[in-house]
C-alpha cells in the first residue's frame, strides 16, 4: 500500500482537519452546533437514530441553505446488534398535477434552468420529516418530542450567522430579490449579525408534539401550499392532499464487492450506490494501490471509470416505482469487467458510452451535461455506543432551495432533478417527470464492511451529482491507498460526469492539467466544495472526520 500525507492535506493545512479521537460514539456533521445536539442525545441514552433527528433539526436552523424540513433525504441505518440494515427513502415527490412537460416551454423547449429553480413548479412534496419519523418509530429509543429541544432553543435565542452562509449570501446578489431569502441577505451584510428564527422554533415545537402530520395537514400544510403556489408566473401546483398522502419508502440498499471489502449504499431513486459500485467495479481491474495518487495516470483511470458510470446513470436511473432499473445487471462483475476493457490507459474515450447489461456496450452521443450549480445538500454520520450507525444525506437541492420560505424554513426546488425533456432521440427518459414520482438523486450515504462483515466506515457527502465523485475518491483513498479517513476526505476532489474532467483548484492536481489534456481530456479547474463527513473504525473504537472545506465538526 502507498502511504502518503503530503498529498492528502491540501492547501488548507493539517490544522484544518477536524477529527474525533478514538471513542465509542461519534457524531460528524456540517456545523458544530448540530454535532453537539446529536452528541447530547447520545450522552442522554439515545441511539444513533435519535441523534440523527436532533442533528437534522439543528441543521434546519443553522444551515437552512443546505437542507431542512422543507426538503427530503435518505437515512441509512445499521443495527449494531443484528447487523440488519434499513434504508429509508424520504425523497420528495412530484404533485399529482405534474405532467412530463412540466419544465418545457410550449411543450417543446426545456425551460432555462435558473428560471426553473425559482419557480413554484420546482417545489416537490417534502419528505424529510415523515422519513425521520418513520425511522424513529422503527429504531428510536428516546421519545420523539425530546429530540427537538436543542434546535428549538437555538432558534429562539439565536447563534452567530455562520461564516460560510455569510459568504454564500454575499456572493449571490440575486438572493436579495426574493422575499424568502431577503432577510438572510440583509443579515449577511452586518458583521456581527445573529441568526434567529422564532417562526421555525414554533414549527419545530409542533412537529415535536404532533409528528409529521403537523406539516401534512392543517394550517402549516396550507401555508406551505400557498408559498409554493405564489409568485406569478409558473406557480406551483402542490395541494394539501399531496402533502397528506406522502409516504416514505423502505428500500433495499445496493451492495457489492470491491477487492476485499463489501460496500452498501443508496438504491434508486438515487443513482449513488449503483454508480459507486460501477466505478469501483471497473477500477478493480487496475492496480490503483500501486499507483501514485497525484499522477495523471491515476486521475485518468478514475475519470474514465466515472464517465462509463455516468453514461449508464443517464440511460437507466430513475424512480424504481415508475421505471424498471436493471440494478443487478448494472453492477454485475462480468458486465463491469467488459466495461473496463473500454478504457485505454493512454487515451481518453472520445464519447462516454452507455452500455446494455448482458450485451456488448455501444457508443453513442453523450447527453448534455445537466445543470448542476453548487448544491444545497448536507451529510452527517453517527455511530452510537451500541455500534448502531446512521448515514443521512438530506437536501433542499440548490443553495437556498427555491428561494421560497414559509413559517421560518425554505422550500426545496428538488423537482429540477428530473430531466426536463421526457424523450431523447425518440426514447422515453427514465428520469422524466410524472405525478407522485421521485426525481433521480446522487446522494450516496455509504457503509463499508471488511471481509469479516464488520462495519469499518460510514461516509457520505454534499455536492449534487458531484457527490458520487467526492465519495469515490475518499473510498479509494482509504481502501486502495491505506489513508486515515481524515486524509482521504482532504484529498483533492476530481470527477468526470460525462463531458469534462473537473479538478479542484488550489491543489496538486491542478499541476497535472497539461498531462491530462495530452491524454485527451477536457479539463476544468474549479472550486469543488464537498462536504464529506464520515467515521472509521480504529483500535479502541471509532474516529470521525469532517471535511476541511466546510465548518463541520467531528465529536467527541
Notable features of this structure?
556 residues; alpha+beta; Serum Albumin, Chain A, Domain 1; seven-stranded antiparallel β-sheet; 18 helices; 18% strand; globular
Account of the protein in words:
By secondary structure, this protein is an alpha+beta fold. The chain has a domain of 86 residues: Gamma-glutamyltranspeptidase, large (L) subunit, C-terminal domain (Serum Albumin, Chain A, Domain 1, Orthogonal Bundle). Helices cover 31% and strands 18% of the residues. The chain has 18 helices and 25 strands. The strands form seven sheets. A seven-stranded antiparallel beta sheet has the order 1-24-23-19-18-11-10. Strands 9-4-3-13-12-2-25 form a seven-stranded antiparallel beta sheet. A three-stranded mixed beta sheet has the order 20-21-22. Helix 18 links the parallel strand 21 and strand 22. Helix 2 packs antiparallel against helix 4 and helix 12 crosses helix 15. The longest helix is centred in the middle third of the chain and has 21 residues. The protein is globular and about 60 Å long. 58% of the residues are buried. The N terminus is likely disordered.
